[in-house]
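Risk register update: the risk that structure generation would not scale has been downgraded. Supporting records follow, first protein first.
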Amino acid sequence: MFKLWISIKKDIRILLRDKVGISLMFVMPIILVIVVTSIQNSTFQLVNKNKLPIIICNTDTGKAGAQFIESVNKIGMFNVSQIPGEKATTIADAMHDKDALLGIVIPTNFSSQVNNKAKAASDKAMAAFSGQTDSVKAVTKQAANIDPLTLYYNPVLQESLRFSIQGAIRSALQLVQTRETLRTLYYASNEKELPKSLENEMLNSNTTINMLPVSKDGTRTTPNASQHNVPAWTIFAMFFVIMSLGGSVVREKVSGSFIRLKTLPTNYLVGLLSKQMTYLAVTLIQAVVIFSIGIWLFPVIGLPALNLPADLFGLFVVTLVCGWCAVSYAICVGVFANTQEQANGFGAISIVILACIGGLMVPSFAMQGMAKTLTNISPMHWCLQAYYSLFLEGAKLKDVLNNIGSLFIITIIIQFITYLGLKRKNLI
């Protein structure tokens, strides 16, 4: 125990001298988590609270064009601006001048085509009611399609958001067509105009959709940007101990410390254990610092506060296992690297790659094929899943044992590879 304590004190002194390593392990992740959370929180607000600016150029002179613009306005996700119909060819310039992300050109014959389609649908319905099958077939052949609307979009919009926009615009278009069809059908059957109150009653749906998050603890709190980002970048910070720990292992090999330790009445495995304990404490401190920033600093700078999970013991166990895996990986890289540059270069690149395939930068549920398979070999994936279960789903320790078990197996494999590397290089 005395030898282990002395070795730990030695590693602490070496760590405190590594100013650059400490900066990479603490300052860089703190800046990263603040910046990324700010960006994602702004994105959430753009989608959920702010309205997307859209320019509509109406070249149609009928009622359907105006009704379509009114329907787009009622969707609630667009801030609609109109430009004269004669400027349809300059819609791209208008979008640039008004900083609009979207633009729509309504065709000149939009109203007439909507009316023709509504008339065809009404005639088809009336013929079907009267049992005139031949008339139904004739009307079906005469039914005309409406020319497509032209939707311009800024390339910065992500594909998922573009699909949502397209669905919203299609809903507005469908509402215009349905309204005109109802009016035509009502007039054909009653020979008078459809009352406005009846039209609103038929078109307006009173059915509401309640969206509730599903959680293991039965709560109904919606996770915010901090719940998503703080755990993810805490994992990233833990694995970045490789910049200090990996370099420390390489320096001891290059300086001959390994050889000198073999002449002493101790085992270098004691030195490896001291490094693991020292840097495991560092990873725990990293987690405490970053979580504290999420809890107390984020509300001060206008970001949503981090809400810790109810199972704090489960959070500690997950953090402990994640930190041990990160430390084990750093020592493994240091054992096999021949120079400090190799350890730092390979370590930094490999951490970024593991973060990518582990779901820290791209959600794992969005991955397909080979990328989806590779997530299972990334320790960061299992770390992230355990944290997300605690933070986002309200899970308990027993609910994340599968993730912890997978992470523990990966860590044991890394430890075994490190041992083989030490034996191969005659370092132990």
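Supporting record for the second protein:
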Amino acid sequence: MSLNYKGQNLFVDNTSIKSIAKNNITPFYVYSYKKIRSNFEIFSNYFRRINPLICFSVKSNSNTSLISELGKLGSGADVVSEGELLKALKAKIKPNKIVFSGVGKTESELRLAIKKRLLLINIESESEARLINKISKKMNQVTPIGIRVNPGVDANTHSKISTGKLNSKFGLPKSNFLRFCRNSRKFKNLKIKAISVHIGSQITSVGPYRKTLNILYKIIRSSKINFEYVDLGGGFGIPYQNKEKRINIGNYSRLVKKFQKKLNCKIIFEPGRFIVGNAGTLISKIIFIKQNRKKYFVIMDAGMNDFMRPALYSARHNIIPVSKSKKRIVGNVEFVGPICESTDTFLKYKNFSFLNENDLVAITNVGAYGSTLSSNYNTKPLASEIIVKNGKVNIARRRQKVSEIV
């Protein structure tokens, strides 16, 4: 995490949260550039011996300023929609460092991707290959593609973010994949350059990755195609609670090194959460505190519209006070949002640092799948996003006005 207390007050790097809140309406997201850069460099260093192309997963955080900063560090982009592609291009990511993934790309999205001459379009069905071939023929182009295979691997993660099982909508099962490879010559306007795999998200053990590499190696050998790239996806988990397990990326990097040596291919990774997850914080103001016989309800101005992960995945994100108190709220404390839904609840505590109405709290580790999953539910405006870089507070996305929604 990029957060630290100086005395009783919370800082992001060396910038006081209170000072940021003076000039910005809550709730707002704040990101530490220092932490993002550190995470990117740590990930790169683990794999420096294989020199992979790192394509940041834009779906994890699609803030254009943030993508631009990663681009300056050498990152490419993994995109899953026309909007994400346009954001990556606006952030000055070069087309030859962009991979277009996704199970349901529309014809207009594919036309744009072909026109921009991206590094790869990762296909997920034979129908998609036919459509890309047809559009490419009309445009008099040969389009480089990757083929996403479904390895049938359980990533041992939350069921809603597991993508590598055989009952998943993603990719081609082995038999379909090999059949497509055998018949690929009929697609005159396609060039098969990669095999792609992604087994899920928030993976905290190397086991599922090891299994995937073994299956992938056998499939590649059976296909009799010399793939220039193997896109190994992302999914690397981070600890959200103090006692949660960390994935041993060092062990995984050694497995990938052996895998690459056997196949003599280039490797692509698509990390998202690992790069930005612990670099983001959601700052919220307490509107009301009310008590019933069983608990204190701390009602914040941040709701499930601003941050969906607790409601969607039962995710647990720690909440900490922006100004610590030596006094305590004794008893059960539940942090909830203002949205008219019972699922608009964040976390329960037994006792908590004393709070008053209008105090600020910080919801931690929200850099990934925070702002990107936010919505206008209850006709609420989207929160602003702020990047703290070298002591400067930069507005990366201004707060939406209610009048803009209305």
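Residues 167 and 273 are 24 Å apart (CA to CA). On this basis the risk owner (M.S.) recommends closing the item.
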